[in-house]
Amino acid sequence: MRAGAIFLREARLAFAGGGGPAAPAAFFIASLTLAPLAIGQSQATLQAAGPGVICFAALLAVLQGAERLFGEDVADGTLETYGLSGLPLSVVALAKVLGTALATLWPLPLVGLGGGIAFGLPAEAAGMLALALAAAIPGLAFLVAIAAALSAGARRGGLVIALIAAPLAIPLMVFTASAGRAAGIGDAAASANLLLTCAVSLFVTALAPFAISAALKARLE
Amino acid sequence: MFSYLANPQRFEKFARIAIPVCGWLAVALIAAGLWYGLFSSPVDRFQGDTIRIMYVHVPSAWLALVLYFAMGVASFVYFIWRHNLADVAAASIAPVGAVFAALCLITGAIWGKPTWGAWWVWDARLTSMLIQFLLFLGYIALRAAIEDERLAARSAAILAMVGLVNLPIVRFSVEWWDGILHQGATVFRADGPEIHGSQLLPLALMAIGFTLLAAWMVLYRMRSAIMARKAANLQRLREARA
To answer: How far apart are CA B155 and CA B79, in angstroms?
Structure first.
């Protein structure tokens, strides 16, 4: 079995099953709709809170599919097949998470862009926020995947995933939201924050497959 | 030293001496530190009597950090060499660390109200400590959620190591996010501590006392955990025979 085949298989499965890209996007839109109803419709409040609320809602949208990510593979024996494929589990993890993330999470930056405009951010700020979200999403997906792999097969796995992933996601949350906020007031720090988002996201993408493979290996023994 | 103690019988021998020594020394040092801190040290020029909260607050903060680090190292040792005792150590450290982090947050809030005029402000250090508390909670929750003991141990060890790698980035990001409100480092500085001797003495007593208290609790919990495992094994043997 080739890594490319795993990538394609997982991408197809994620795209077709469980709502595909529509599920996280719809969840994202729903939470963005609730936010102004909760914090009030004043333009100034929405502009100030917008980038943060949008990043936070994006994290929730990434989290909502997490329990399915490895739970079914551990339960139905797919994991054993991957283990027998001769590929290192870290490569399997990389292919699987990238495939799933690309197939299901691609609408999030677009929704983020629309959300930014709906929250009254200037166009450059909404664009910067969407860019930063696009940069952050691979990192978020891999962090959530670590939490998902660690709690695969646990009771109330979803709850544990959220509790584990929340503190790990802080750097991406901080830099992504700061990029949007800084762009909103025309601050030059926006691009610095975008670069930091890229850096953390790359760092996580490079290292997370090893943590995921260690967690999966423990489930194969 | 770790591989020497990895043998449970040697650990038992070590713990039988170390537990009472740590416990009583902690009692003595904390009593002395409290007396110096509450009665015998002068009132601070700027902060008045509220400074005395520092003698509990600062050692708790140090210990929350040190215990998180220790938990990460123990997890690493368990993950690489599969010493069961290292796993017992990590599992025993987690709740103790969480309690110290909580103590640090609570004393910080009590100190913050008269000094800053607010129970809580979102500055970098407070937020970092809150995150630290969450990391401990995540570790405890993950362990509790997985029924298979060996799987729980390995998953928790991976989580602790991931958390340890991630912690510097979290701290950097939180400092980046924040302007500076908290006072900077005053004790561990290159040009010597910037704190008066009359405050340093009770602080040092309390810090060492709290460290011994933590060691006492961790060792006690470790010995209890080992005994509980032994008892469970004996129970299983008896049921198998019957």
So the answer is: 10
Q: Please give the backbone phi and psi of residue B48, each rounded to the nearest 5 degrees, phi first.
A: 65, -145
A108-152 residue pLDDT tens: 999 999 998 888 888 888 999 999 999 999 999 999 999 999 998
Tokens representing residue B85 in the block: 């005792």
What is the spatial distance between Cα A183 and Cα A122, in angstroms, rounded to a whole number?
Answer: 9
- When CB atoms are compared, the residue of A164, A166, A175 closest to B159 is A164
* Segment A54-87, tens digit of pLDDT: 999 999 999 988 888 888 888 888 888 888 888 8
Q: Is the CB of residue A207 less than 8 Å away from at least one CB of chain B?
A: yes
Name the minimum distance, in Å, from the CA of A196 to any CA of chain B: 9
Q: Where are the domains of chain B?
A: 18-178+196-233
A180 vs B contacts (CB less than 8 Å): none
Residue B182: band (very low, low, confident or very high) from pLDDT cuts 50, 70, 90: very low
pLDDT the model gives residue B2: 59
Distance in angstroms (rounded) separating the CA atoms of residues B76 and B89 = 11
Which ipTM did the prediction report? 0.87
- Give the integer Cα–Cα distance in Å for B28 and B11: 25
> How many Å lie between the alpha carbon of A197 and the closest alpha carbon of chain B?
10
What are the residue ranges of helices labelled H in chain B?
2-5, 8-35, 54-81, 84-116, 124-145, 149-177, 197-241
Q: At what angle do helices A107-118 and A123-150 cross, to 10 degrees?
A: 140
Select from A151, A200, A219 the Cβ nearest to the Cβ of B169. Answer: A200
Dist CA A170 CA A176 (whole Å)? 10
Tell whether A168 is within 8 A of chain B (Cβ): yes
Q: What share of chain A is helix, strand, coil (3-state, %, to 5)?
A: 85, 0, 15
